[in-house]
Amino acid sequence: MEAFKIDGSRKLKGEIKVQGAKNAVLPILAASVLNQGITKINNCPKILDVESMLNILIETGCKVEWEEDSIIINSKDVDQSSIPEKFVREMRSSIILLGSILGIQKKIKISFPGGCSIGTRPIDLHLKSLRKMNVFIEEKNGFIECKTNKIIGNKIILDYPSVGATENIMLAAVLSEGETSIYNCAKEPEIVELQNFLNAMGAQVKGAGNDIIVIKGVNALHDVEYTIMPDRIVAGTYLIAAAITKGELYLKGTINDHFSPITAKLLESGCHIKEYINSIYVKAPEQLKSIDHIRTLPYPGFPTDMQSQFMSLLTICEGTSIITETVFESRFKNVSELTKMGADIITEDRTAIIKGVKKLNGAQVSAKDLRGGAGLILAGLAAEGITYVKNISHVKRGYENIINDFHSIGAKIEEINLKGD
Ligand SMILES: CC(=O)N[C@H]1[C@@H](OP(=O)(O)OP(=O)(O)OC[C@H]2O[C@@H](n3ccc(=O)[nH]c3=O)[C@H](O)[C@@H]2O)O[C@H](CO)[C@@H](O)[C@@H]1O
Ligand SMILES: C=C(OP(=O)(O)O)C(=O)O
């Protein structure tokens, strides 16, 4: 089994450039079918989820080509509307194809993405919204079949500001008849990025980043070239790598406003932070302080995708910290693993109480999901002795170069084949 071996307890120091954002590029790749032409996407991270999305695009009839860190997609010949189940199982966010494939093919057959380790992740809000846009949907035998003679714009009020539902509605509305307004939409930077991308190929979308998004349907879109923004969650993960090892790090190519809840919590823990335009510097104190309460929320609240990484950090902060996970109901899977490393954590429903310990010890632990895996790597970097993190394919879904990046700032980390598992 592939695993990361980490020889921990080394102060990390240096600089890293942040990769392109996974959660921005995935909906943009899905959207690339809408122009039925050429899309060039720059700063595209080479991660497993991108690979899976490209495999799906190829199945639908796209031609796809890498040119260094750019990806060129030719969607002139897209003619398939049935998405193979194995790809949908590989990557939950393949559900974002609902809106874009419907937009050009007027139909799609796709399997339910299935529950995953962070929660059940239903898609009721996606389906309810598309039904309001004149899409007929049948759910049978684990598959969703959608059909429409034309997508018609409507007023949609989301019960919860779901990122994926907001994206699917935007994608379905771009080539629709009339106007769609999404109330209580998600406000994440990735939604703004999707709006910018769609407008760059001729769409008429406004309001992203605020409470209401309005999309005016257009007849056709054109070729486009677009550069993906930096990944705010990778940036946050790397800042914690510096903090947890009592090191210092200069991160380049960041948009600091995108992760201000993260810097706010690092400041609370006693880190010294200096923000520049498109870069940020963090230096950790010798003893980190506990953080009163982290409560995950939709943007601009504290991101759930940073919860596991902070949990690792809090295990060695002096005092007691509390985390409440409000977004996903099952995102505390790291607790048992961190406990193996000497952490003192108890959970009650959606709240974790973390009592800081003097140090973590290396152990054999297992990643249960993407950010959980990142959290365990961080714990391994801080721990005394050797940590083996198993199931690292989760981590490769979202981190392009985590081994080389941590290596370059002084970590002793390598990928190995762990025998006996
Ligand atoms: C590829 C991508 O961008 N993934 C991100 C996206 O996931 P994703 O788009 O799946 O997250 P959502 O915002 O949709 O989900 C948030 C909450 O709403 C619930 N829900 C969602 C849709 C629905 O129809 N019904 C429903 O009940 C979910 O179960 C969850 O509890 O936003 C999450 C929340 O910031 C992030 O953690 C993920 O990294
Ligand atoms: C939960 C995540 O991603 P996904 O929605 O692709 O599972 C994540 O990026 O942390």
Major sheet strand order:
21-22-1-23
Bound molecules: uridine-diphosphate-N-acetylglucosamine, phosphoenolpyruvate
Estimated radius of gyration: 21 Å
- Biggest beta sheet attributes: 4 strands, mixed
Structural class: alpha+beta
Helix content: 25-40%
Tell me, briefly, the overall form.
globular
Distance between the termini: 6 Å
Strand content: 25-35%
Q: Low-confidence runs (pLDDT<50, min 5 residues)?
A: none
CATH topology of the largest domain: UDP-n-acetylglucosamine1-carboxyvinyl-transferase, Chain
Instruction: Calculate the mean pLDDT score and round it.
Output: 96
CATH-defined architecture of the largest domain: Alpha-beta prism
Which CATH C-level class of the largest domain is it?
Alpha Beta
Q: Say which CATH homologous superfamily of the largest domain is assigned.
A: Enolpyruvate transferase domain
Question: How many extended strands?
Answer: 23
Q: Quickly count the domains.
A: 2
Number of helices: 14
Keywords: Cell cycle, Cell division, Cell shape, Cell wall biogenesis/degradation, Cytoplasm, Peptidoglycan synthesis, Pyruvate, Transferase
Main location: cytoplasm
Function: Cell wall formation. Adds enolpyruvyl to UDP-N-acetylglucosamine.
Binding site for UDP-N-acetyl-alpha-D-glucosamine: 92, 121-125, 305, 327
